[in-house]
From TrEMBL:
GO biological process, one term: methylation
Residues of the signal peptide: none
Domain RAMA residues, every copy: 279-371
Species in which this protein is naturally found: Fulvimarina endophytica
PROSITE patterns in alphabetical order: N6_MTASE (PS00092)
Lineage, highest ranks first: Bacteria, Pseudomonadati, Pseudomonadota, Alphaproteobacteria, Hyphomicrobiales
Gene3D superfamilies: Vaccinia Virus protein VP39
GO MF terms held by the record: DNA binding; N-methyltransferase activity; site-specific DNA-methyltransferase (adenine-specific) activity
Protein name: Methyltransferase
Pfam families: N6_N4_Mtase, RAMA
GO terms under cellular component: cytoplasm
Protein backbone atom coordinates (compact mmCIF):
# COMPACT_ATOMS: atom_id res chain seq x y z
CA UNK A 1 0.00 0.00 0.00
CA UNK A 2 1.37 3.42 -1.02
CA UNK A 3 2.18 5.81 1.84
CA UNK A 4 1.66 9.53 1.35
CA UNK A 5 4.31 11.89 2.70
CA UNK A 6 3.70 13.19 6.22
CA UNK A 7 1.98 16.57 6.25
CA UNK A 8 0.97 18.45 9.37
CA UNK A 9 -2.33 20.21 9.12
CA UNK A 10 -2.33 23.11 11.51
CA UNK A 11 -5.09 23.87 13.96
CA UNK A 12 -5.58 27.01 15.98
CA UNK A 13 -5.99 25.03 19.22
CA UNK A 14 -2.84 22.94 18.77
CA UNK A 15 -0.26 22.92 21.59
CA UNK A 16 3.51 23.48 21.60
CA UNK A 17 4.19 19.77 21.22
CA UNK A 18 2.91 20.17 17.67
CA UNK A 19 0.65 17.19 17.44
CA UNK A 20 -2.15 17.59 19.96
CA UNK A 21 -5.45 18.74 18.48
CA UNK A 22 -4.16 18.35 14.94
CA UNK A 23 -4.94 16.22 11.96
CA UNK A 24 -1.81 14.58 10.59
CA UNK A 25 -2.21 13.83 6.93
CA UNK A 26 -0.58 10.67 5.64
CA UNK A 27 -0.37 6.93 6.16
CA UNK A 28 -1.36 5.99 9.70
CA UNK A 29 1.74 3.84 10.31
CA UNK A 30 4.33 6.43 9.29
CA UNK A 31 2.45 9.17 11.13
CA UNK A 32 2.14 7.15 14.35
CA UNK A 33 5.87 6.38 14.13
CA UNK A 34 6.48 10.15 14.40
CA UNK A 35 4.53 10.51 17.65
CA UNK A 36 6.32 10.17 21.02
CA UNK A 37 6.15 6.70 22.64
CA UNK A 38 3.62 6.32 25.47
CA UNK A 39 1.93 9.63 24.71
CA UNK A 40 -1.79 8.94 24.20
CA UNK A 41 -4.38 7.85 26.76
CA UNK A 42 -6.78 6.10 24.40
CA UNK A 43 -7.09 5.07 20.77
CA UNK A 44 -10.26 4.73 18.74
CA UNK A 45 -9.68 3.00 15.41
CA UNK A 46 -12.22 2.48 12.63
CA UNK A 47 -9.94 0.78 10.09
CA UNK A 48 -10.81 -0.28 6.54
CA UNK A 49 -13.32 -3.16 6.69
CA UNK A 50 -11.91 -5.01 3.66
CA UNK A 51 -15.49 -5.64 2.48
CA UNK A 52 -14.37 -7.75 -0.49
CA UNK A 53 -17.30 -6.59 -2.64
CA UNK A 54 -17.38 -8.58 -5.89
CA UNK A 55 -18.98 -5.92 -8.09
CA UNK A 56 -21.88 -3.57 -7.46
CA UNK A 57 -24.49 -4.38 -4.84
CA UNK A 58 -27.99 -4.01 -6.34
CA UNK A 59 -31.46 -3.67 -4.80
CA UNK A 60 -34.34 -5.84 -6.10
CA UNK A 61 -35.47 -2.82 -8.20
CA UNK A 62 -31.96 -2.85 -9.82
CA UNK A 63 -30.90 0.44 -8.21
CA UNK A 64 -27.30 0.47 -6.95
CA UNK A 65 -26.67 0.29 -3.18
CA UNK A 66 -24.37 3.01 -1.87
CA UNK A 67 -21.83 0.52 -0.45
CA UNK A 68 -18.24 1.08 0.70
CA UNK A 69 -16.38 0.53 -2.58
CA UNK A 70 -13.59 3.06 -2.04
CA UNK A 71 -9.96 2.29 -2.87
CA UNK A 72 -8.96 2.70 0.80
CA UNK A 73 -11.09 -0.31 1.69
CA UNK A 74 -9.52 -2.69 -0.82
CA UNK A 75 -6.78 -5.22 -0.11
CA UNK A 76 -5.43 -7.93 -2.41
CA UNK A 77 -5.91 -10.77 0.05
CA UNK A 78 -6.55 -11.62 3.68
CA UNK A 79 -2.77 -11.89 4.10
CA UNK A 80 -2.31 -8.32 2.85
CA UNK A 81 -5.04 -7.13 5.23
CA UNK A 82 -3.46 -8.99 8.16
CA UNK A 83 -0.02 -7.50 7.41
CA UNK A 84 -1.56 -4.01 7.33
CA UNK A 85 -3.47 -4.70 10.58
CA UNK A 86 -0.34 -5.89 12.39
CA UNK A 87 1.65 -2.89 11.15
CA UNK A 88 -0.82 -0.27 12.42
CA UNK A 89 -1.58 -2.12 15.68
CA UNK A 90 2.17 -2.33 16.39
CA UNK A 91 2.64 1.38 15.77
CA UNK A 92 -0.44 2.15 17.90
CA UNK A 93 0.81 0.07 20.83
CA UNK A 94 4.08 2.02 20.95
CA UNK A 95 2.21 5.32 21.14
CA UNK A 96 -0.26 4.16 23.80
CA UNK A 97 0.52 4.90 27.46
CA UNK A 98 1.12 1.73 29.53
CA UNK A 99 -2.33 2.14 31.13
CA UNK A 100 -4.01 3.32 27.95
CA UNK A 101 -6.70 1.38 26.11
CA UNK A 102 -7.62 0.85 22.47
CA UNK A 103 -11.01 0.51 20.81
CA UNK A 104 -11.31 -1.04 17.36
CA UNK A 105 -14.62 -1.17 15.52
CA UNK A 106 -15.35 -3.55 12.68
CA UNK A 107 -17.82 -5.86 10.99
CA UNK A 108 -17.76 -9.63 10.45
CA UNK A 109 -15.50 -9.00 7.45
CA UNK A 110 -12.53 -7.88 9.54
CA UNK A 111 -13.14 -7.87 13.30
CA UNK A 112 -12.11 -11.49 13.93
CA UNK A 113 -8.81 -10.96 12.09
CA UNK A 114 -8.24 -7.72 14.05
CA UNK A 115 -9.03 -9.52 17.32
CA UNK A 116 -6.46 -12.25 16.64
CA UNK A 117 -3.79 -9.67 15.78
CA UNK A 118 -4.55 -7.69 18.95
CA UNK A 119 -3.97 -10.80 21.06
CA UNK A 120 -0.87 -11.87 19.09
CA UNK A 121 0.70 -8.43 19.65
CA UNK A 122 0.24 -8.46 23.43
CA UNK A 123 -2.90 -6.38 23.86
CA UNK A 124 -5.38 -7.77 26.40
CA UNK A 125 -9.05 -7.83 25.41
CA UNK A 126 -11.30 -6.31 28.10
CA UNK A 127 -14.67 -6.47 26.33
CA UNK A 128 -16.28 -6.91 22.98
CA UNK A 129 -19.17 -4.53 22.57
CA UNK A 130 -22.03 -5.12 20.19
CA UNK A 131 -23.30 -1.89 18.66
CA UNK A 132 -26.86 -2.84 17.68
CA UNK A 133 -28.17 -0.47 15.02
CA UNK A 134 -31.73 0.77 15.42
CA UNK A 135 -31.93 1.49 11.68
CA UNK A 136 -29.69 -1.00 9.83
CA UNK A 137 -29.64 -1.47 6.05
CA UNK A 138 -31.85 -4.34 4.85
CA UNK A 139 -30.35 -7.50 3.34
CA UNK A 140 -31.35 -6.77 -0.25
CA UNK A 141 -30.94 -10.25 -1.67
CA UNK A 142 -32.75 -12.00 1.17
CA UNK A 143 -30.00 -14.63 1.30
CA UNK A 144 -28.65 -13.88 4.76
CA UNK A 145 -29.75 -12.41 8.08
CA UNK A 146 -29.99 -8.64 8.13
CA UNK A 147 -26.59 -7.39 9.25
CA UNK A 148 -27.74 -5.21 12.14
CA UNK A 149 -24.67 -4.69 14.31
CA UNK A 150 -20.97 -3.89 14.41
CA UNK A 151 -18.51 -5.13 16.98
CA UNK A 152 -16.10 -3.06 19.03
CA UNK A 153 -13.13 -4.63 20.78
CA UNK A 154 -11.85 -2.79 23.85
CA UNK A 155 -8.35 -3.83 24.94
CA UNK A 156 -5.63 -2.72 27.33
CA UNK A 157 -2.03 -2.39 26.20
CA UNK A 158 -0.91 -5.36 28.31
CA UNK A 159 -2.44 -8.19 30.28
CA UNK A 160 -1.15 -6.78 33.59
CA UNK A 161 -2.32 -3.18 33.00
CA UNK A 162 -4.66 -2.77 35.96
CA UNK A 163 -5.14 0.97 36.34
CA UNK A 164 -6.62 1.79 32.95
CA UNK A 165 -9.46 4.33 33.02
CA UNK A 166 -12.94 2.89 33.26
CA UNK A 167 -15.55 5.32 34.55
CA UNK A 168 -17.75 2.57 35.93
CA UNK A 169 -19.73 4.72 38.37
CA UNK A 170 -20.44 7.49 35.86
CA UNK A 171 -21.66 4.95 33.29
CA UNK A 172 -23.85 3.25 35.87
CA UNK A 173 -25.29 6.60 37.03
CA UNK A 174 -26.06 7.49 33.41
CA UNK A 175 -27.82 4.14 32.95
CA UNK A 176 -30.51 4.57 35.65
CA UNK A 177 -28.11 3.12 38.25
CA UNK A 178 -27.81 -0.19 36.42
CA UNK A 179 -24.39 -1.54 35.28
CA UNK A 180 -23.69 -0.59 31.69
CA UNK A 181 -23.94 -3.70 29.51
CA UNK A 182 -21.83 -4.73 26.56
CA UNK A 183 -24.69 -4.39 24.02
CA UNK A 184 -25.31 -0.80 23.00
CA UNK A 185 -28.23 0.54 20.97
CA UNK A 186 -27.63 3.53 18.70
CA UNK A 187 -28.93 4.60 15.28
CA UNK A 188 -26.46 4.81 12.40
CA UNK A 189 -25.32 8.32 11.57
CA UNK A 190 -28.10 10.11 9.66
CA UNK A 191 -30.10 13.35 9.50
CA UNK A 192 -28.40 16.63 10.28
CA UNK A 193 -25.35 14.92 11.76
CA UNK A 194 -24.47 13.22 8.45
CA UNK A 195 -22.01 15.40 6.54
CA UNK A 196 -22.96 16.03 2.89
CA UNK A 197 -21.16 17.60 -0.06
CA UNK A 198 -22.49 20.51 -2.17
CA UNK A 199 -24.69 18.08 -4.14
CA UNK A 200 -26.23 16.61 -1.00
CA UNK A 201 -24.24 13.35 -1.39
CA UNK A 202 -22.78 11.72 1.76
CA UNK A 203 -19.32 13.20 2.29
CA UNK A 204 -18.00 9.88 3.67
CA UNK A 205 -19.40 6.36 3.37
CA UNK A 206 -18.76 5.26 6.98
CA UNK A 207 -19.23 8.30 9.23
CA UNK A 208 -19.81 7.00 12.77
CA UNK A 209 -22.49 8.42 15.10
CA UNK A 210 -21.26 10.93 17.65
CA UNK A 211 -23.29 9.18 20.37
CA UNK A 212 -21.16 6.04 19.92
CA UNK A 213 -17.93 8.01 20.28
CA UNK A 214 -19.30 9.90 23.28
CA UNK A 215 -20.04 6.62 25.09
CA UNK A 216 -16.51 5.39 24.33
CA UNK A 217 -14.75 8.58 25.34
CA UNK A 218 -16.81 9.04 28.50
CA UNK A 219 -16.23 5.41 29.49
CA UNK A 220 -12.49 5.22 29.04
CA UNK A 221 -10.93 8.69 29.33
CA UNK A 222 -10.79 11.66 31.69
CA UNK A 223 -11.09 15.36 30.79
CA UNK A 224 -7.71 16.53 29.44
CA UNK A 225 -6.73 13.07 28.15
CA UNK A 226 -5.61 12.68 24.56
CA UNK A 227 -7.44 10.35 22.16
CA UNK A 228 -5.76 9.17 18.95
CA UNK A 229 -7.75 8.13 15.87
CA UNK A 230 -5.52 6.71 13.12
CA UNK A 231 -8.42 6.44 10.61
CA UNK A 232 -9.95 9.84 11.18
CA UNK A 233 -12.35 10.07 8.20
CA UNK A 234 -14.75 12.94 8.92
CA UNK A 235 -13.17 13.50 12.35
CA UNK A 236 -16.01 12.15 14.51
CA UNK A 237 -13.52 11.25 17.25
CA UNK A 238 -11.96 14.73 17.19
CA UNK A 239 -15.33 16.50 17.23
CA UNK A 240 -16.59 14.50 20.22
CA UNK A 241 -13.24 14.68 22.06
CA UNK A 242 -13.17 18.47 21.69
CA UNK A 243 -16.77 18.81 22.88
CA UNK A 244 -16.00 16.63 25.91
CA UNK A 245 -12.86 18.52 26.95
CA UNK A 246 -10.39 15.90 25.72
CA UNK A 247 -7.53 16.43 23.28
CA UNK A 248 -7.30 14.49 20.04
CA UNK A 249 -4.85 13.58 17.34
CA UNK A 250 -6.26 12.39 14.04
CA UNK A 251 -4.54 10.69 11.10
CA UNK A 252 -6.14 10.56 7.66
CA UNK A 253 -4.75 9.99 4.18
CA UNK A 254 -7.35 11.60 1.95
CA UNK A 255 -7.22 15.39 1.39
CA UNK A 256 -10.98 15.81 1.18
CA UNK A 257 -11.64 14.02 4.46
CA UNK A 258 -8.92 16.04 6.22
CA UNK A 259 -10.57 19.26 5.06
CA UNK A 260 -14.07 18.15 6.06
CA UNK A 261 -12.87 16.97 9.47
CA UNK A 262 -10.99 20.20 10.15
CA UNK A 263 -14.04 22.35 9.33
CA UNK A 264 -16.23 20.15 11.49
CA UNK A 265 -13.91 20.33 14.50
CA UNK A 266 -13.40 24.09 14.16
CA UNK A 267 -17.16 24.56 14.56
CA UNK A 268 -17.35 22.59 17.83
CA UNK A 269 -17.89 24.52 21.07
CA UNK A 270 -16.29 22.58 23.95
CA UNK A 271 -18.33 21.96 27.08
CA UNK A 272 -16.77 23.56 30.09
CA UNK A 273 -16.04 23.17 33.77
CA UNK A 274 -18.71 21.52 35.86
CA UNK A 275 -20.57 20.12 32.84
CA UNK A 276 -17.65 17.75 32.31
CA UNK A 277 -17.29 16.47 35.87
CA UNK A 278 -17.71 12.70 36.09
CA UNK A 279 -19.91 11.05 38.70
CA UNK A 280 -17.64 9.05 40.99
CA UNK A 281 -18.68 6.33 43.41
CA UNK A 282 -16.90 4.97 46.50
CA UNK A 283 -14.18 3.31 44.44
CA UNK A 284 -13.26 6.65 42.81
CA UNK A 285 -12.50 8.21 46.19
CA UNK A 286 -8.92 8.24 47.48
CA UNK A 287 -8.12 5.43 49.95
CA UNK A 288 -7.69 6.75 53.48
CA UNK A 289 -6.33 4.27 56.04
CA UNK A 290 -7.36 4.74 59.70
CA UNK A 291 -3.71 5.40 60.60
CA UNK A 292 -3.73 8.57 58.50
CA UNK A 293 -6.59 9.95 60.65
CA UNK A 294 -4.35 9.44 63.69
CA UNK A 295 -1.35 10.98 61.89
CA UNK A 296 -3.46 13.98 60.82
CA UNK A 297 -4.61 14.58 64.41
CA UNK A 298 -8.26 13.87 63.59
CA UNK A 299 -8.28 11.03 66.17
CA UNK A 300 -5.81 11.23 69.07
CA UNK A 301 -4.06 8.09 70.38
CA UNK A 302 -5.92 6.97 73.52
CA UNK A 303 -9.36 8.01 72.15
CA UNK A 304 -12.15 5.61 73.06
CA UNK A 305 -14.22 4.20 70.18
CA UNK A 306 -17.61 2.61 70.70
CA UNK A 307 -20.41 1.20 68.55
CA UNK A 308 -23.71 3.03 67.98
CA UNK A 309 -25.39 1.16 70.86
CA UNK A 310 -22.39 1.61 73.19
CA UNK A 311 -22.04 -2.16 73.73
CA UNK A 312 -18.31 -2.42 72.89
CA UNK A 313 -15.31 -0.20 73.59
CA UNK A 314 -11.87 -0.03 71.97
CA UNK A 315 -8.90 2.29 72.42
CA UNK A 316 -6.98 3.95 69.58
CA UNK A 317 -3.22 3.27 69.55
CA UNK A 318 -0.55 5.58 68.16
CA UNK A 319 0.19 3.15 65.28
CA UNK A 320 -3.38 3.38 63.91
CA UNK A 321 -4.58 0.04 65.30
CA UNK A 322 -7.31 -0.20 67.93
CA UNK A 323 -7.26 -2.43 71.00
CA UNK A 324 -9.69 -4.24 73.24
CA UNK A 325 -7.59 -5.23 76.23
CA UNK A 326 -4.36 -6.64 74.76
CA UNK A 327 -5.98 -7.59 71.46
CA UNK A 328 -4.91 -4.96 68.89
CA UNK A 329 -5.69 -5.01 65.16
CA UNK A 330 -7.38 -2.95 62.43
CA UNK A 331 -10.72 -1.19 63.02
CA UNK A 332 -12.34 -3.87 60.83
CA UNK A 333 -10.81 -6.90 62.49
CA UNK A 334 -11.48 -5.75 66.05
CA UNK A 335 -15.02 -4.76 65.04
CA UNK A 336 -15.57 -8.28 63.70
CA UNK A 337 -13.98 -9.98 66.72
CA UNK A 338 -16.03 -8.18 69.38
CA UNK A 339 -19.23 -9.16 67.55
CA UNK A 340 -18.09 -12.74 66.83
CA UNK A 341 -18.41 -12.11 63.06
CA UNK A 342 -16.13 -12.93 60.12
CA UNK A 343 -16.11 -9.38 58.79
CA UNK A 344 -17.10 -5.87 59.77
CA UNK A 345 -16.88 -2.41 58.19
CA UNK A 346 -15.00 -0.64 60.98
CA UNK A 347 -15.66 2.78 59.39
CA UNK A 348 -19.40 2.58 60.00
CA UNK A 349 -19.25 0.35 63.11
CA UNK A 350 -16.95 2.43 65.33
CA UNK A 351 -17.93 5.88 66.64
CA UNK A 352 -16.24 8.65 68.59
CA UNK A 353 -17.97 10.69 71.30
CA UNK A 354 -18.89 14.26 70.37
CA UNK A 355 -20.24 15.67 73.66
CA UNK A 356 -23.26 13.49 74.45
CA UNK A 357 -23.58 12.28 70.85
CA UNK A 358 -21.73 9.65 68.81
CA UNK A 359 -20.24 10.23 65.37
CA UNK A 360 -19.19 7.38 63.03
CA UNK A 361 -15.47 7.51 62.27
CA UNK A 362 -16.47 7.43 58.58
CA UNK A 363 -17.32 11.13 58.93
CA UNK A 364 -13.73 11.81 60.01
CA UNK A 365 -12.59 9.87 56.94
CA UNK A 366 -14.69 12.21 54.73
CA UNK A 367 -13.05 15.17 56.44
CA UNK A 368 -9.60 13.68 55.74
CA UNK A 369 -10.58 13.20 52.07
CA UNK A 370 -11.74 16.81 51.76
CA UNK A 371 -8.41 18.00 53.19
CA UNK A 372 -6.53 15.74 50.75
CA UNK A 373 -8.43 17.10 47.74
CA UNK A 374 -7.86 20.68 48.87
CA UNK A 375 -4.14 19.93 49.27
CA UNK A 376 -3.83 18.52 45.72
CA UNK A 377 -6.17 21.20 44.29
CA UNK A 378 -8.65 18.58 42.97
C1 LIG B 1 -13.86 3.45 8.17
S1 LIG B 1 -13.31 5.03 7.76
C2 LIG B 1 -13.34 5.95 9.29
C3 LIG B 1 -14.55 6.84 9.42
C4 LIG B 1 -14.55 7.68 10.69
N1 LIG B 1 -14.62 6.87 11.87
C5 LIG B 1 -15.70 8.70 10.69
O1 LIG B 1 -16.54 8.68 11.63
O2 LIG B 1 -15.77 9.50 9.77
C6 LIG B 1 -11.61 4.75 7.51
C7 LIG B 1 -10.82 5.99 7.11
O3 LIG B 1 -9.44 5.65 7.14
C8 LIG B 1 -8.78 6.25 6.04
N2 LIG B 1 -7.61 5.38 5.76
C9 LIG B 1 -7.62 4.18 5.15
N3 LIG B 1 -6.38 3.67 5.15
C10 LIG B 1 -5.59 4.56 5.78
C11 LIG B 1 -4.20 4.59 6.09
N4 LIG B 1 -3.41 3.59 5.75
N5 LIG B 1 -3.72 5.66 6.76
C12 LIG B 1 -4.53 6.70 7.11
N6 LIG B 1 -5.85 6.72 6.82
C13 LIG B 1 -6.36 5.67 6.17
C14 LIG B 1 -9.80 6.29 4.94
O4 LIG B 1 -9.52 7.33 4.03
C15 LIG B 1 -11.11 6.50 5.71
O5 LIG B 1 -11.45 7.86 5.79
Amino acid sequence: MKRSGPVLVHNRDSDEAGWRNRILQGHCVSQMERLPAGSVDAIFADPPYNLQLGGDLMRPDHSKVDAVDDAWDQFESFQAYDAFTRAWLTAARRVLKPNGTIWVIGSYHNIFRVGASLQDLGYWILNDIVWRKTNPMPNFRGKRFQNAHETLIWASRDQDAKSYTFNYDALKASNDDVQMRSDWLFPICSGGERLKDEDGIKAHPTQKPEALLARIILASTKPGDVVLDPFFGTGTTGAVAKRLGRDFVGIEREDDYVRIAQERIDAIEPLAGDDLKMAGGKRAEPRVPFASLVEAGLVAPGTELTDSKRRYRARVRADGTIAVGDDAASIHRIGARVQGLDACNGWTFWHVKQGQKLMPIDELRQLARQRMSLAIGA
